[in-house]
Predict the 3D structure of the following.
Amino acid sequence: MSRAELDKKPFDVAGMFDGVAARYDLMNSLMAPGQVGRWRRATVEALDLDRGETVLDLAAGTGTSTAALVDAGLRAVAADFSSGMMAEGRKRQRHVPFVGADAQHLPFADGTFAGAVISFGLRNVQDPRRGIQEMARVVRPGGVVVVCEFSTPTHRAFRAVYERYLLRAIPTVAHRVASEPEAYDYLAESILAWPDQEELRDWFAGAGLRSNQFRNLNGGIVALHRGVVQA
């Protein structure tokens, strides 16, 4: 496997995730100890949907994020374009339905879902603005789109420390634990190249979403964005 580059060609990104699928969840826990569950709970809360509503979990990977939605009483569909990640997910999350899907061309009719969410996956879409537009398309009017993604720490000194962590600590851990450590070099680079909170909120508005807002988590290391589909 070769790592993806920042041009994020879909075939390269999917292949990279195929290669890291077996230890992907383990690496997430090591990189953000004690935080992954907290971010998932915050994402479920941001959807603010009634039990039994149907939600699309895009770029769901092994389906751990989808399982959190199901555990909250929602009906959730996991969608991803990495066959390796979905294969791992089908073994671990037997109660979660998986659908192969490219975020830029979703195979769902307009207004299919009450909400759509993508956690730490929008950054890997070649055209992320198109991905937001597709999420908005498949959500019914009045429904919600939620993006949980790495972002820009708000405190300048903390930001400098965080950037050093991304460029040094994550690759070091990956080379000891991950099956394909080069993928985590891409991870660090893609986070540093990602737009800040205000720009991503502008992308929501550009996709026709309204009432757009974001909430910083962990000092802005992660930002939770929410928008409502126009009625």
